[in-house]
Automatic annotation (TrEMBL):
UniProt family annotation: Belongs to the cytochrome P450 family.
Needed cofactors: heme
PROSITE patterns according to UniProt: CYTOCHROME_P450 (PS00086)
Lineage, broadest ranks: Eukaryota, Viridiplantae, Streptophyta, Embryophyta, Tracheophyta
Keywords: Heme, Iron, Metal-binding, Monooxygenase, Oxidoreductase
Entry binding sites for heme: 436
Gene3D superfamilies named among the record's database cross-references: Cytochrome P450 (1.10.630.10)
Gene Ontology molecular functions: heme binding; iron ion binding; monooxygenase activity; oxidoreductase activity, acting on paired donors, with incorporation or reduction of molecular oxygen
Biological source species: Stephania japonica
Pfam families named in the record: p450
PANTHER family: CYTOCHROME P450 82C3-RELATED, CYTOCHROME P450, FAMILY 81, SUBFAMILY K, POLYPEPTIDE 1-RELATED
Record protein name field: Cytochrome P450
CDD domains, sorted: CYP81
A Gene Ontology BP annotation from the UniProt entry: secondary metabolite biosynthetic process
């Protein structure tokens, strides 16, 4: 044991002096003062995107950090985002090695974690063709419409006798249940929340599912000091292993449900799982069960919590700005004269509604720090030396609130999106090869959900005070306090 500890600290000091030598010898981006061994880890206070914004304002839009033994860059300007993620996007098309990718990404084989190369391109083709193509979107939009109507019907229950009585509603729970049902139906053809479930059952199910399905791209001590993972007794990856077991068990149950219990839909091409199982029959070597679980996991983790949070922030902003909600209501009423509940096909004629979603994404992006990239080779970008394996993070929150880029950047003004946004000053879904492939779907689903609630119901804050817009902790930037509001059916 003493020998292992000695070797470990020898390894640390070797890298420390190597880093100091390279810093003197090479041209690096600006950086704060670093402590020995830990580098800048002591500066990373939550909320991380705000801390990094403050550091970037002091040191520049390309900020270099030493995170233990790992090099990192933080990009906080559109020009930096463009140069790193579009002009040089192949060099930065990898993901950093991390314990989350090892465990939750099925040993870096799932699309979010896979290194750039043949396997990643094959996965991208599968998801583009079977999830995000125009044909696939047209099939799944029917599910969106049906689930929105189901939500409206559920919220209308109980108003027959007291149509003018306002009711309190937890919108955080409503939006999360909506997205879970949409993603479950897209994936398997069935809802999570079947008829007959009481509210307590639903709450317990939501809590358990959220624990399993919320994205986890965070890096920890074992990622910043990889040699520590040699010491198994430290159990640095125990939480990730436990989470992987729960998530894998859930995903395996979905596969087995299709394979064994419901053979009639096992090859149903209207569901993602049915499509993937059909592809597996034609090419079992590529379409392994782990690959199938990785694709379905991506759908839930990338599309459920993030879209629900976007709708919650957007509705919070609308409650604090009733004049914006009224303008959206007038647009819906004037364009949808048939009085039917808004459908996906109506969104093209409701540009202001899309502006509201985009403005919510600007102010409260569900990924304030874009999913990290990593350099596959040493390179020079903007005159700066970037070593191989450098972690590169885009600070979308900082760019979206930069007063040099946006007039009154902290104000909620959907009208700013009525024209085209030039450049890379709006990047809620990332850019380049590793940008989110489901960005279009997320904006449309969020717009559809918000549009239906604005169209069918009247909304008020719970009290006279403005809705609290404080941010909570988490990689998807949830609200600190879940949104509650008063509502009742509109008199049409």
């Amino acid at each position: 044991m003493d020998l292992l500890i000695y070797l470990f600290f020898t390894f640390l000091f070797f890298h420390l002096f190597k880093h100091m030598f390279n810093t003197i010898k090479k041209n690096h981006p600006p950086s704060p003062f670093a402590l020995p061994i830990i580098g800048h880890l002591h500066l990373l206070k939550p909320p991380l995107h705000i801390t990094l914004t403050s550091l970037s304002r002091r040191h520049g839009p390309v900020l270099r950090l030493k995170l233990g033994l790992r090099n990192a860059l933080v990009l906080s300007s559109p020009s930096a985002i463009e140069e790193f993620f579009t002009t040089n996007d192949i060099v930065f098309a990898n993901r950093p090695a991390a314990l989350a990718g090892l465990h939750l990404g099925y040993n870096y084989t799932s699309l979010p974690w896979a290194p750039y190369g043949h396997h990643w391109r094959a996965l991208k083709r599968v998801t583009t063709t079977n999830i995000f193509s125009s044909h696939s979107i047209s099939l799944t939009s029917r599910i969106w419409n049906e689930e929105i109507k189901h939500l409206v019907e559920r919220l209308n229950v109980g108003f027959d006798h007291e149509p003018l009585q306002l009711k309190k509603l937890n919108l955080k729970s409503v939006f999360l249940q909506l997205m879970l049902d949409i993603m479950m139906r897209v994936s398997t053809g069935k809802r999570f929340f079947e008829a007959g479930m009481d509210e307590d059952e639903k709450k317990r199910l939501v809590a358990s599912l959220k624990e399993i399905l919320v994205p986890n791209m965070k890096m920890g001590l074992g990622d910043f000091f990889p040699p520590l993972t040699w010491f198994k007794f430290l159990k640095l990856d125990k939480k990730l292993i436990d989470l992987h077991k729960k998530r894998d068990h859930f995903l395996q149950s979905l596969i087995e449900q299709h394979q064994n219990h419901e053979p009639s839909i096992s090859t149903n091409h209207t569901t993602l799982m049915g499509t993937l199982l059909s592809l597996q029959k034609s090419d079992p070597d590529f379409y392994t069960e782990e690959l199938l679980k990785g694709i379905v996991s991506m759908m839930f983790t990338a599309g459920t919590d993030t879209t629900a949070i976007t709708m919650e922030w957007a509705m919070s902003l609308l409650l604090n700005h009733p004049e914006v909600m009224e303008k959206a209501k007038q647009e819906i009423d004037s364009k949808l004269k048939h009085k039917n509940i808004i459908a996906e096909s109506d969104l093209a004629n409701l540009p202001y509604l899309t502006c509201i979603v985009n403005e919510a994404l600007r102010l409260y992006p569900p990924g304030p720090l874009l999913v990290p990239h990593a350099s596959s080779a040493e390179c020079t970008v903007g005159g700066y030396r970037v070593p191989k394996g450098t972690i590169v993070m885009g600070n979308a929150w900082a760019i979206h609130r930069d007063p040099k880029l946006w007039e009154d950047p902290t104000k909620f003004r959907p009208e700013r999106f009525e024209g085209r946004v030039e450049g890379y000053k709006f990047v809620p879904f990332g850019v380049g090869r590793r940008g989110c492939p489901g960005a279009g779907m997320a904006v449309r689903v969020a717009g559809l959900g918000l549009g239906a609630l604005i169209q069918v119901f009247e909304w008020e804050r719970v009290g006279e005070e403005l809705v609290d817009m404080s941010e909570g902790s988490g990689t998807t930037m949830p609200k600190l306090r879940p949104l509650e509001a008063m509502y009742r059916p509109r008199s049409m």
